[in-house]
């Protein structure tokens, strides 16, 4: 990892993990400050994990979480107090280091000149010029002074964002496009289920962001602070402003680990794991391999979540491993689902129930994980009774796979783009914002009722690309998204129930049913998941090739 020195007593860094603490201690740091809220990214270690590791090395750890781009004067004052009271030198970190650098700059404003602060930031690799505008404007966001302007601005460089950028360029090479995302790594998240089953190696699901960005697209490596859609402006952290002719919003969603009491402290140890985090999927496989007997719990929170089938995919693959190893009879497998059904599209439930019976899985519906005691190996669930009261149910476990509640990112939920539930408010067919005609959204953050999967984003991206170009006057007609989503339900190693459906749960197979009958477990569907879909993702979807994804046009 890289430490960027600001002064002799303060340095900043991008996200650290518990495994970095030996190097941090060896570098002489005596305290660390976390400026990143837990749950912002799928590869993010929680603060409590890092705090425990810091304690082992005699390092003081403090938590001062700041939403991306939301550094306030009170936050800066608190940061300044920490710099005065913590033992030096101090390492402050967030996703990229920008929030930490901003906090330092605002805290130092009474003591240093603005040119000196900006120069120190530049030397460390952080552009703090936006703070000059902020201070000059009395704290107001300088939305009238943009640092850059583009034809199209895309917020989010995940599957949806990069696929849309490539689809745009495939249709109109001359577009000036900027993608805003602070992450340095792009993940093939559908592969994490396979990592948790020992099928894929973790490294095969990750690539440097710079290597997958479409050629010619500008990458703004920063977080978004706010949207000003009436002025066609996006405000970045550090108060920088970017203008656009068309805006595409697709930053994914937020994994709310802190919504479950006790979970952040025990993730990655005490038999507590989740395939929803890059660094924890290998731990899932280790637990599955090592469990000889006992009780294994698998949980699913209330909808919406990313890939609704993923919680039970982990369960089926684990149970299949125990069956093949001759240990399943010694392991009690239980599924705790906050919902009322096994899967939202009824046509696929009979095939799944066959595996529930084969693995002797106990199904518990209406149970929501509310707390977890990792050292005590106890999970606490809340369940609504028929009379409206709520009961608490405790289960002991030897292993538990947890899926956290999921929401739209904080900067989305508080923005003028959001509906009452916090998701970006778009027309479900055109994916155009219902209020702002030059704003579109796709992927997990949109308030559409389709499954939140990469397969859905693959179908949405060409529709958004066409409609953006239509709004810019470069093409005619309107592209329609039909709600397509796909969930390859890995029911055993070597077989998959390939669920494909449209809005309303209408079954919609891509291939002829004589080739793959999605309502039955299929070896060919497994081959598709294991061998075909990863290269299709990297080499086709992210590069603007739209095989089986061309949108329907009207008008």
TrEMBL record:
Pfam families: BLH_phosphatase (PF04273), Pyr_redox_2 (PF07992)
Occurrences of domain Beta-lactamase hydrolase-like protein phosphatase-like (ranges): 2-109
Molecular functions (GO terms): FAD binding; hydrolase activity; quinone binding; sulfide:quinone oxidoreductase activity
Required co-factors: FAD
Keyword Oxidoreductase in annotation: yes
Name this protein carries in UniProt: Uncharacterized protein
Classification via NCBIfam families: TIGR01244 family sulfur transferase
Alphabetized UniProt keyword annotations: FAD, Flavoprotein, Oxidoreductase, Quinone, Transit peptide
Domain FAD/NAD(P)-binding: from-to ranges: 150-263
InterPro entries (UniProt xref): BLH_phosphatase-like, FAD/NAD-bd_sf, FAD/NAD-binding_dom, Prot-tyrosine_phosphatase-like, Sulphide_quinone_reductase
Single GO biological process annotation from the record: sulfide oxidation, using sulfide:quinone oxidoreductase
Domain of life the protein comes from: Bacteria
């Amino acid at each position: 990892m890289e430490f960027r020195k600001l002064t002799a007593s303060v340095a900043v860094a991008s996200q650290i993990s518990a495994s970095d603490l030996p190097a941090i201690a060896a570098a002489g740091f005596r305290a660390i400050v976390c400026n990143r809220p837990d749950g912002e990214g799928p590869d993010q270690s929680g603060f409590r994990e890092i705090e425990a590791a810091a304690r082992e090395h005699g390092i003081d750890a403090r938590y001062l979480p700041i939403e991306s781009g939301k550094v306030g004067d009170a936050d800066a004052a608190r940061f300044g107090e920490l710099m005065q009271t913590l033992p030096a030198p101090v390492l402050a970190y967030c996703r990229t280091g920008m929030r930490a650098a901003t906090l330092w700059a605002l805290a130092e404003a009474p003591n240093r000149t603005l040119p000196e602060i900006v120069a120190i930031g530049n030397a460390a690799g952080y552009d703090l010029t936006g703070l000059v505008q902020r201070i000059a404007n009395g704290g107001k966001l300088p939305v009238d002074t943009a640092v850059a302007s583009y034809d199209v601005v895309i917020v989010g460089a995940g599957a949806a964002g990069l696929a849309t950028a490539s689809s745009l360029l495939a249709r109109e090479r001359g577009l000036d496009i900027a993608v805003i995302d602070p992450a340095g790594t792009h993940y093939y998240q559908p592969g994490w289920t396979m990592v948790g089953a020992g099928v894929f190696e973790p490294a095969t699901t990750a690539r440097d962001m710079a290597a997958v960005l479409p050629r010619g697209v500008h990458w703004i490596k920063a977080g978004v602070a706010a949207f000003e859609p009436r002025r066609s402006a996006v405000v970045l952290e550090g108060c920088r402003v970017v203008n656009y002719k068309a805006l595409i919003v697709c930053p994914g969603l937020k994994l709310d680990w802190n919504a479950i009491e006790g979970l952040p402290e025990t993730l990655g140890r005490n038999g507590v794991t989740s395939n929803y985090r890059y660094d924890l999927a290998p731990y899932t496989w280790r637990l599955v391999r090592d469990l000889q007997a006992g009780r294994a719990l698998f949980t699913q929170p209330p909808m919406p979540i990313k890939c609704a089938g993923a919680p039970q995919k982990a369960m089926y693959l684990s149970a299949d491993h125990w069956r093949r190893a001759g240990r399943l009879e010694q392991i009690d497998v239980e599924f705790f689902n906050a919902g009322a059904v096994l899967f939202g599209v009824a046509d696929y439930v009979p095939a799944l129930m066959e595996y529930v019976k084969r693995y002797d899985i106990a199904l518990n519906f209406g149970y929501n994980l509310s707390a977890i005691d990792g050292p005590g190996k106890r999970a606490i669930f809340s369940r609504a009774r028929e009379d409206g009261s709520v009961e608490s149910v405790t289960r002991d476990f030897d292993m538990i796979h947890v899926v956290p509640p999921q929401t739209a990112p904080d900067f989305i939920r508080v923005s003028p783009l959001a509906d009452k539930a916090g998701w970006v408010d778009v027309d479900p067919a055109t994916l155009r914002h219902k209020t702002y005609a030059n704003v579109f959204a796709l992927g997990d953050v949109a308030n559409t009722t389709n499954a939140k999967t990469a397969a859905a984003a693959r179908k949405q991206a060409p529709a958004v690309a066409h409609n953006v170009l239509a709004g810019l006057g470069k093409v005619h007609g309107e592209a329609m998204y039909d709600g397509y989503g796909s969930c390859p339900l890995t029911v055993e190693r070597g077989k998959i129930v390939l669920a494909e459906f449209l809005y309303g749960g209408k079954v919609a197979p891509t291939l002829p049913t004589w080739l793959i009958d999605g309502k039955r477990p299929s070896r060919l569907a497994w081959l598709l998941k294991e061998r075909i879909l990863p290269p299709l993702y990297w080499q086709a979807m992210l590069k603007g090739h739209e095989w089986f994804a061309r949108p329907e046009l009207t008008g």
